[in-house]
């Protein structure tokens, strides 16, 4: 499809955020022309299953598609695949694309997502070293895993642990290497980290913490082993790197956008550039559930909410109330659901495990509940979301002593608010 000279609204990025904003705009009655530019030559797809169900065959590539081809053929928006934006001119309201031509816009929505952070070591570009960020990555991982007897996962975050669980299920001998003193150090607490370390050990996965990767040994085009700072050498037919991501914001930075880990946006996802919004993994926005800190929240629910914010602003609607941030991870038969933002917590409280093996940990800051991790405890997860959403003041004592967390929603507790 030939790209027109201009669109009323141009979306750059075809991930969850970009696709969601198209749907929300049309749902809100927006009648202007919409173009979507996506760098990958793939119909937009879900990313969470890439490190979970796809490798195990629980979902197919077709089932990953956020929208089928006929959705885009219906005229809802023009989808341009395999096209990259190289620069943004906010004064002229035009972007330059890979072939050197330009496309104009009335409004621009930047939803490019993030790229996997590369391992800064010689050999990191070897054919059996892979991140898990794109569908192409997942296909490559599937091909490599088919013949790998040993795998080293560098990074003990969500991606590393989910991929470790998947590979262990396939019979691969797996080692997880984490530089911090515990797993999920950025997004969880010590109790959950211990619980998950035990879970992985029970499935034959070796977990090494406080460990730095000092080198990669190679033979030809492949890594053969991973060398740790203490001299330990780990055999590796496959190396999976999960050491974080970098938001794709260079073009907006060059255009003058203010940043703080991501592009700074207001409550309606507007950047400081005229007519330019940023949503999804690229956007750093004030979060009322984190004491007003400006955060990049990497989650599908956040991308969806921010898409609603943009649509409301474009059509002149009321500002969208933001919900409690939440996240999830699946590892073996354990579903971890997190409600709230636990950054800066100063106390964690573990509730007595239930008969159904539910495990709930609350995180507190200055004596009040700010987040909770819920393992195989969906009801408690929903209760915590409600508690935080209603701004109810829950102390460590009440969190621990309540026979059921739902009791904290009763009338006698509802009077106390944050």
Give an overview in words.
The chain is an alpha/beta fold. It has 3 domains: 6-114 and 246-314, FAD/NAD(P)-binding domain; 118-243, FAD/NAD(P)-binding domain (3-Layer(bba) Sandwich); 333-414, Enolase-like, domain 1 (2-Layer Sandwich), CATH 3.30.390.30. Helices cover 25% and strands 29% of the residues. The protein is built from 12 helices and 25 strands. It has helices at residues 16-27, 53-56, 61-64, 69-73, 135-145, 158-169, 190-202, 250-254, 300-314, 378-389, 396-401, 411-414; strands at residues 6-12, 34-38, 78-81, 85-89, 94-97, 102-110, 114-116, 129-130, 150-154, 173-177, 206-208, 213-219, 222-228, 233-235, 238-241, 245-247, 263-265, 276-278, 283-286, 294-295, 326-331, 334-340, 347-350, 359-365, 368-375. Strands 1, 2, 3, 4, 5, 6 and 18 form a 7-stranded mixed beta sheet that branches. Strands 8-15-9-10-11 form a 5-stranded parallel beta sheet. A 5-stranded antiparallel beta sheet has the order 21-22-25-24-23, sandwiched between helices. Strand 23 and strand 24 form a beta hairpin. The mean pLDDT is 96.
């Amino acid at each position: 499809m030939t790209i027109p000279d201009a669109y009323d609204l141009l979306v750059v990025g075809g991930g969850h955020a970009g696709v969601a904003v198209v749907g929300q705009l049309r749902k809100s009655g927006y009648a202007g022309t919409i173009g979507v530019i996506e760098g990958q030559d793939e119909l937009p797809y879900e990313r969470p299953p890439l490190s979970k169900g796809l490798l195990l065959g629980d979902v197919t590539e077709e089932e990953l598609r956020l929208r089928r081809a006929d959705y885009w053929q219906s005229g809802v928006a023009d989808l341009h695949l395999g096209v990259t934006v190289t620069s943004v001119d906010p004064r002229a309201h035009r972007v330059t694309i890979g072939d050197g031509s330009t496309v104009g816009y009335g409004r621009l929505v930047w939803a490019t997502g993030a790229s996997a952070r590369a391992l800064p070591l010689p050999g990191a570009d070897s054919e059996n070293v892979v991140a898990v960020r794109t569908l192409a990555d997942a296909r490559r991982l599937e091909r490599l895993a088919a013949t790998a007897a040993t795998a080293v996962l560098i990074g003990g975050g969500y991606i590393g642990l989910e991929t470790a669980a998947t590979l262990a299920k396939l019979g691969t001998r797996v080692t997880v290497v984490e530089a911090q003193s515990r797993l999920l150090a950025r997004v969880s607490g010590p109790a959950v980290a211990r619980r998950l370390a035990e879970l992985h050990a029970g499935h034959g996965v070796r977990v090494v913490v406080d460990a730095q990767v000092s080198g990669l040994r190679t033979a030809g085009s492949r890594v053969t082993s991973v060398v740790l700072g203490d001299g330990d050498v780990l055999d590796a037919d496959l190396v999976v790197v999960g050491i974080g991501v970098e938001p794709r914001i260079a073009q907006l930075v060059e255009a003058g956008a203010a940043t703080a880990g991501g592009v700074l946006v207001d409550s309606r996802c507007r950047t400081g550039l005229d007519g330019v919004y940023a949503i999804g993994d690229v956007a750093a926005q004030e979060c009322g559930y984190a004491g007003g800190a400006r955060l990049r929240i990497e989650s599908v629910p956040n991308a969806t909410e921010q898409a609603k914010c943009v649509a409301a602003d474009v059509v002149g609607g009321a500002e969208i109330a933001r919900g409690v941030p939440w996240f999830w991870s699946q590892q073996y038969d354990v579903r971890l659901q997190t409600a709230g933002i636990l950054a800066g917590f100063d106390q964690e409280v573990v509730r007595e495990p239930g008969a159904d093996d539910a495990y709930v940990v609350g995180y507190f800051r200055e004596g009040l509940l700010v987040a909770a991790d819920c393992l195989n405890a969906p009801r408690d997860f929903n209760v915590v979301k409600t508690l935080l959403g209603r701004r109810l003041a829950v102390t460590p004592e009440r969190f621990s002593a309540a026979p059921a967390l739902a009791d904290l929603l009763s009338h006698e507790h509802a009077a106390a608010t944050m």
